[in-house]
Design a protein that fits this description.
4 domains; D-Amino Acid Oxidase, Chain A, domain 2; FAD/NAD(P)-binding domain; alpha+beta; Glutaredoxin; 21% strand
Length: 643
């Protein structure tokens, strides 16, 4: 299905990135490259951050920009503190930074510029193409209007909307000053003049940059601006009664780069779509800036719609469900914006409301993001857990949108004294060496038994605890850490009970080593014991064990080695609507997803023979894209990450 997106702001680009992840053909269209640079900075709700994190699943080496904001301070103009409230890790980021981040999650040169919407072309009362002002025509199956507040696409579907009267204006700017920024690095400060309806806010958006804004009653501005100097004089006039630190901040500002918002909104639309055209982001809905909801809603729209298009058998079904899910939230945000605005303009009211949306996810929205949960009981020294890696990776490529894996540790080797024959015939390290040798001769996934001969592990508990400690920090990095530990053991024959080796490996994947070491001595031990107790309750005696469970409580349990087709069948039994992603992955794209692979994994995931795989890997090595680490049992190929 080809999806044509009109507008490449946050909503349009994010939708394009998610649809690209799911294998759809996309066409992103924008009026001008300048629109990628417009705007200053904004706050994002934690739910929006979760969505950005999902974009990094195929680009794990890309870091999300911005500055975490974990508290808001509301003050009076005389600097008296009215309220100090903790926030759950909001983030402030520059618009140009987030667009650059999302652009890195798209194929190169995806956006086509100089394409300003003119009209749709219809056939049998259905849109088949869009015509642009420059004469270009783009055909497609589905069309998305993401062209902002003054949306031409919206007007073509529903006519002109009635915008609310502008009663509050907002001037926004960014200053670059490390000393000033560091003083309030994680804090959103907002100062309010309760007598004149003036507010000044400032929020760090990086380690040395601060976004600031002034909100004021439009009646306080007597003449229109005629240049940067008049904007500066107006700002300083409004802030005469404000603390000196505010005026000091503005002394670093370039008033030729300020943005002036005419704060307005419009009522909730009766629908976000018409036939095969749908609106998202500001084109579909606008809340007043008092809520800090705009960019968050744009990302949630993009993520929700991409999921629904994947899950629903019809476009109309996806669009209808999209409105059912999003409209109630948007209505709340429109109402909240108006409530805070009225409170701001009421000089008799001495209360100040927190200018942020609160909880976004509601119970009725959970099915949109609901996934099969796979409880995967594993152990870092379990050889079967190693040889099943290709199947798990293929399952993730084909059905990753429909499940999440929860890694649980099974405690395979407490110690040789405690083992007491629990692992079949294996009672001592030499038995493990013999067993691994047999496995290596029958399986295509390479592994070496040498560790049990040269440096036998005394227990699997230390690496297991380190994995739990990693999970407490970052789920993606914990997966990379877990994978790297397996490579060290099964390919490089390293003793992974060595604490120094574990800490070095943690640093290698970007974990906080100091925190990891602290957690390994206390909190991670508790988490590990919880896994062992849970495994005992479920009578898990075989590793690996996979327990698939959907949102309705239906379960499917698989024990021991599994072929890919068996895992796929479990997914489809628990979610009959799951659609396989048949995107043909390119070798470089595959390495961007999985930074290290054996030749067998590479050939298995590309669905080519091992000779073809070897030739491609050698060419990638000659091109400097991947490097090879040679091992006795088998080589590991790794993406060369750019600094």
């Amino acid at each position: 299905m080809k999806i044509v997106i009109l507008g490449s702001g946050i909503a349009g680009m994010a939708l394009g990135a998610f649809l690209h992840q799911k294998g759809h053909q996309i066409s992103l269209n924008e009026r001008s490259p300048k629109n990628q640079r417009l705007g200053h900075a904004f706050l994002l709700h934690p739910d929006a951050m979760d969505i950005l994190q999902k974009l990094t699943l195929t680009k794990p080496n890309i870091e999300i920009p911005g500055q975490i904001i974990d508290e808001i301070k509301l003050k009076k103009a005389d600097n008296e503190l009215l309220q100090c409230t903790e926030l759950e890790s909001w983030i402030c980021m520059k618009r140009s930074d987030i667009l650059s981040f999302i652009n890195h999650c798209l194929p190169e040169d995806t956006i086509r510029f100089d394409r300003s919407f003119k009209n749709f072309i219809y056939k049998n009362n259905r849109v088949v193409a869009v015509e642009f002002e420059n004469g270009d025509i783009e055909y497609g199956d589905l069309f998305v209007g993401a062209d902002g507040v003054r949306s031409k696409v919206r007007n073509s579907l529903f006519g002109e909307v009635e915008f609310s009267k502008t009663e509050v204006r907002e001037i926004v700017g960014i200053i670059k000053n490390e000393e000033f920024t560091q003083k309030s690095l994680h804090t959103f400060n907002k100062i309010n003049c309760l007598q004149q309806s003036i507010a000044f806010g400032y929020i760090p958006c990086s380690n040395d940059e601060m976004v600031w804004y002034i909100q004021y009653d439009v009646r306080l501005q007597k003449t229109e601006f005629d240049g940067p100097e008049s904007i500066k004089n107006h700002c300083l006039s409004l802030l005469e009664q404000f603390p000196e630190e505010v005026r000091n901040l503005l002394s670093f500002n370039d008033f030729s780069n300020n943005f002036i918002w005419q704060s307005t909104d419009f009522d909730l639309l009766p629908s976000f779509h018409k036939d095969n055209v749908v609106l998202i982001g500001d084109a579909a809905h606008v809340a007043l800036p008092f809520t800090s909801a705009g960019s968050t809603n744009a990302l949630i729209d993009a993520y929700t719609l991409s999921n629904l298009l994947q899950q629903n058998p019809t476009i109309s079904g996806a669009f209808n469900q999209f409105y059912e899910i999003r409209a109630p939230r948007i209505k709340e945000h429109i109402s909240l914006g108006r409530e805070i605005k009225n409170n701001f303009l009421d000089n008799t009211n001495k209360t100040v409301k927190i200018p942020l949306i609160q909880n976004i996810k509601k119970e009725e929205e959970i099915p949109v993001d609901s996934k099969i949960e796979i409880s995967y009981f594993t152990d870092p020294v379990c050889s079967t857990c190693w040889i099943v890696q290709p199947q798990l990776r293929k399952l993730s490529l084909k059905y990753g949108d429909y499940f999440e894996i929860k890694y649980l540790l099974g405690g395979l080797l407490p110690s040789w004294d405690e083992l007491k024959g629990k692992i079949g015939r294996i009672k001592q390290p030499s038995d493990a060496a013999d067993y691994w040798q047999e496995v290596s001769e029958t399986q295509k996934m390479p592994l070496s038994p040498d560790v049990w001969i040269n440096s036998p592990l005394s227990s699997s508990f230390p690496p297991s605890i380190s994995i739990k400690a990693a999970q407490m920090q970052n789920k993606l990095k914990a997966y990379q850490f877990h994978r790297r530990i397996k490579e060290l053991l099964f390919l490089e024959s390293k003793n992974i009970t060595d604490i120094d080796l574990l800490l070095h490996t943690a640093e290698e994947v970007g974990l906080d080593v100091i925190k990891l070491k602290e957690d390994m001595n206390l909190n991670a031990i508790k988490k590990f014991n919880e896994d062992l107790e849970y495994a005992s309750e479920l009578k898990i005696h075989t590793l690996p064990t996979f327990i698939f469970k959907n949102e309705f409580g239906d379960e499917k349990t698989l024990r021991g080695y599994q072929e890919y087709e068996v895992m796929e069948k479990a997914i489809l039994e628990l979610n009959p609507l799951a659609v396989k992603n048949n995107t043909k992955r390119q070798p470089i794209e595959l390495f961007n997803i999985y930074h290290s692979m054996t030749a067998h994994e590479f050939s298995y995931l590309l669905e080519i023979n091992i000779l073809e795989a070897d030739n491609i890997l050698i060419n990638l090595e000659h091109s400097g894209i991947v490097g090879k680490k040679q091992n006795k049992s088998g080589d590991i190929w790794k993406l060369k990450l750019k600094n």
